[in-house]
Amino acid sequence: MKDADVSPEDTDIQYVCSANTAFGRRPSWRYAMFADQARFGLIDDPKRCWAKGERPVVTCQTTQEYTYAYAAVNPFDGDMVSLILPYTNTGVMNIFLEEISRRQADRFTLLFLDQAGWHTANGLNIPPNIRLAYIPAYSPELNPTEHIWDELREKNFHNTTFYGISAVEDALEIGLRNLEKDMQRVQSMTGFEWIVTIE
Using CA atoms, how far apart are residues 83 and 72, in angstroms rounded to an integer? Predict the structure, then answer.
């Protein structure tokens, strides 16, 4: 699907409704999820901060070592699936698709993605309970998962220097686990009006 202004009449929506019926669930496309990846690493991005009675000093480093957070969110109820993985490529994307399929095993999921190369590659192994759909290219503002990355960077990485990639991964794990447990918070960040008003 190339058009982000989806409606229940769209082919993919009809497909996910009939598929959920086959899975024994009430027909609804509200099992749709939006997925994305983001890079987190040792390089610092200092932000404004304030401390009473003194001028804050923020350490910085330019070490270019990274890991990647993968997340899929349901904007209707705040359900979220996440993994920390070392790369962005087709093989790693297959691992993430398998994780979504396992955690959503009792339903059929319509998964919206951007058009990154590893999202459209012929080598993708798409599980039988997932169907992929695509938002327009170069339109990150349409993907509610982007707000997850903003929240993580503000709450878990703000003016923090990490002295090893394992420390970055530890901070990511804490942040992602906290978000997965707080569905109401995730829904409030990702429930874009153009999505949640679709019936």
Answer: 9
